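Worked Example 4.2. Consider the chain below.
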Amino acid sequence: MKPQLKATLLVAAVFVAVVAVLLVVGGRDEPADAGPGGDTPSGAGTTDSRLVRDDSRVLGERGSSDVELVEFLDFECEACGAAYPVVEDLRERYGDKVSFVVRYFPLPGHFNAERAARAVESAARQGKFEEMYRKMYDTQSSWGEQRVPLDDLFRGYAEELGLDLARYDADYASDEVAARVQRDVDDGLALGVQGTPTFFLGGELLQPESVADFERALTDALGE
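Applying the procedure from the previous section yields the following structure tokens:
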């Protein structure tokens, strides 16, 4: 089997797993209370500035076009973990043109999700956003669904990444970083996000059922 075909089949298999996880959890991992604007997004386009803010985190470099794929995610969410390799594959193929934007959306039912988001944001403030983002997903199976605080574990990740630990500790514990994470959550709720992962492409809710749907949506958005 050719390597390219093998990779494509692998991504397709992973996407099937994503869909299966989403079905098991009733569409997505859902928060206990969606709060204001908690209706399911209609799929209509939105020009709401809360979708992407000036300081929203971007994986890698911004794409050459104005097309943005925005994901509201929870690092402890199994469906997000299953979607992670699919998004990575899409980045590999479209990252030069499309901006992949990350919005934090830790769910209240996940004990360490908000802590993980603060750890990632604290790393981002030292230029290590993508490295900590990857670390959380690569290790999710070892720390997810635990009901004890994992602050020390996440601090260990910061040390592995070579971060200034004094600065990391200060950021991780700061009201500013906590507010930064909560602002993403508030933006998501205002946009009708009810669970994770939730994707928007070109300002519109994206609900792909296959890798092909993702690819088609991206190529359409790019006008290819």
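The longest helix spans residues 3-24. The first strand starts at residue 57 and ends at 59. Compare this with Example 4.1 before moving on.
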